[in-house]
Structure formats: structure tokens, C-alpha cells
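Hello K.,

You asked for the raw outputs rather than the summary table, so here they are, unedited. I folded two proteins back to back in the same session to keep the settings identical. This is the first:
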Amino acid sequence: MAAPMLNQFNTLVANMFAAGLLDDQFQELQMLQEGSAPDFIDKVVTLFCEDGERIIGEIAKLLIGAQRVKNSCIQFHQCCQEKSRDGCLNSLDSVRNDFYDVCSMFNPHASAGPSLHPKL
């Protein structure tokens, strides 16, 4: 990476740390980059963004009528697009809580086996 681009990248990373968008795990990632693979971080960040978008989309598609979970996923996706760290963290907590609420309500019925779905 050329010196001006490296300085620009380092400034961006410093600003992202200051805004709370990055944590110590990103510093560990930077330590893994070697001179032989100068685009390592770029590739990892690209994969993170592409995979994250795909996974969030898949989660929304897999919901089985769990409306609150679906709405929380939509809110999480919107916060990601807005790059709102606090919004992402809050909506991710909502996704997690709503998911566990639905699962815990189904859990007694799921363990009952076939009787959950009476024969017509």
C-alpha cells in the first residue's frame, strides 16, 4: 500500500476505533497481516461485509412466522446500513431475546413430539 493510502487507511481505522466501530479483535487481525499478503485485511473485511449481508438475509428468510424476531432482524439490518453501532448492538440484543422467547415457548411442545401436530 502506498504511503498516502496507508496514512489514509490508518486514519480511517483510528477514527473507527474512536467511534467504537472496531475493537481489539481488529488489532489482532492486523497483526496477522504479513508482507507477503498486503491485501489480507482488505480481503477479510470484504468477506465480513459480504458474508454478514448474506447471513442477515438468510436469517430473515428462515424465520417461521416469528414476527417479532423478523422485525428485530429488519431493525438490525437497517442499523447496519446506517452504520449505527449502538443501534446494531441494541437491535442484536432484541433479535437474540426475541429468538429465545419464541424457542422457549415452543420448547415444551417440540419435546412432546408428534402430538404437537394433531392428525387431521
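The second followed immediately with the same parameters:
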Amino acid sequence: MAVETQSAARDKSTIIQIITWIMFIGSVLGVVGGMGTKYVLTRQLSWDDGLMPLALAASLAQCIAISLAASNGLGKDQSTLSSDAVDGFLKGEYASIPFLILSLALVKWSISAFINYLSPSSRHHQAVMALRGVIVLWTITAILTSLFQCAPPRTWDYAHGLHCIDRRAWWAYVSAVNILTELVIIVLYFTIIGNLQISRMKKANLLTIFSTRGLVVAATVAQLAVFWGAIPSPATDNLTDNLWLPILLNQIVVCVSVVTACLPYLKPLMDSLESGLVRANLPGGSEEEFSQELSHRSGGSTNISAYGGHHQRSY
């Protein structure tokens, strides 16, 4: 009876499921709020806006896989579980990883499109192309490695399978590239915002919002550190209890990544960006003079929208 009570007290499966779905709901609210704000203010959405719902779809699939892993014993003492339950946990975790990586990659790609729209600089566009190349290679290699982490037919069973990869080294690679690409994104943001001709207060506000991508870096570092210490030796020692926290931290990484990618669409920031981007592209004179000049030459109207990435001048 005492053993059963102690085991029940250590059961974290319900908490894992609750937090997992709270994180997903937070991601949904972030995307809906960001895209909704953008549409209300610009009356248009671009192709890259569709990447965020796709990232949510991948995140949803990941959450379902984690819920299945939790229902099969994630967060419980492995000694209290049947072999079928442990196998179910391994399959759930196995299924979640490709969707985790895909979700993060889609968010990064959406941000790269936004950065392209922010700056007309060819140097920035070249940097974005290089960033995208790294993201594509990282996504392909990380997902393929996760799918074939052990020799067939039991590719998911790193606890009992034969010829499995070093999971610590593999996850260090996944996390390191994730961190590196986020740092590049932050540097590009700061470089572009630094060139905007806006007040110091507005510039500080913009830099504060864009620097929230640093939270993704912090969450990824924390997850890697916990994961590194949680991998038992040998690999069959209480996996279900040891890995609950690193798996939960992955949900937090995804949520933070999605939400911080949507923050730039807040209306005050949109107004600051639009004003600054217009001025940054003026060859001289005021914004009003620039608009009048365009209108005079074309006999039409000028619509300059910095958001969502579109500097559109309809003449």
C-alpha cells in the first residue's frame, strides 16, 4: 500500500497533459491574435502567413503524440508499467519529435519572410537566404535522424533496440542549430531596426519586442541541459519518469517560439515599424512630400504598408 501511494504521488502524467494543452492553446491564441491584428489593419494576408497555421498543425500533432505517451506512462515510475505501456510511451515520444522540429522550422521560415519584407537591403536578403538554407538542412537531417534513430524494424525503441544513435549527441546538434538560427534572427532584427529613422523610445520598444526571441534560446538551453542530465544509464532505467520534464520543456519551447513570432503584429509596433520603414526608404524630404510626389507622378494614390511584410506602393 505504501509503495502504491508513493507511486501515485510521483505520477505526473496528468500534469503533463494539462500543461501540454495549455501551451498549445497559448500558441493558438498568439497566432489568431497576430494574424487577426494584421488583417484588421492591412486587410490582407500574404502567403507566408499560412506558415503559422501549418506550424500550429504540426504542434497539434506533437501534442497528441505527447498525450498518448502520457497515457502510456510518461511521468510514472517505469517499474509500475507493463512492457506494452513502455512501448506505447516510446512510440508516442518517437512520433512527437518530427512534428516538434517541423513546427519550429515553419516558425523560423515565417520569420525569415517577415525579415525579408522589413528590409530592402540585398545583404539582408542574402543573409535570409543563407538562414533558410541552414533551416532546411537542419529540418531534413534532424527529422530523418529521429525517424531512423534505431535499426529497423523497431526504429522507435531506443531502450531495447539495436544499433541506436547517441541520443545526447543528436539532441545537442538539434538544439545547437536551433539556438544558432535564433541568434541570427535576433541579429538581423537588431540590424534592421537600428537603421530605422524613428525616436529612441519607439526603437527601444521595437528592440524589446524583437529581443523576446531570446526567450526561445533560453528555453532551448534549459531543455537541453535538463535532457542531458535526464538520460539514464543504462537507457532502460526509468525512462518514463526521467524524461517527463525535458519533454514538457519542449512544449514550452514551441509555445514561446510561436507566441514571440506573433508579437511584432501588435498595433503600436506596426505603427512604429511602418513609420520607420517609410522614412528609411525615403531619398530625401518628408514622408508627406514623398507621398505627394508619387501621387503627382502617377495621378493615383499611394499605399505604403510596412506590415506583414508588404511595402506596397500602388501608383
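The first helix runs from residue 2 to 9.

Happy to rerun anything if the numbers look odd on your end.

Regards,
P.
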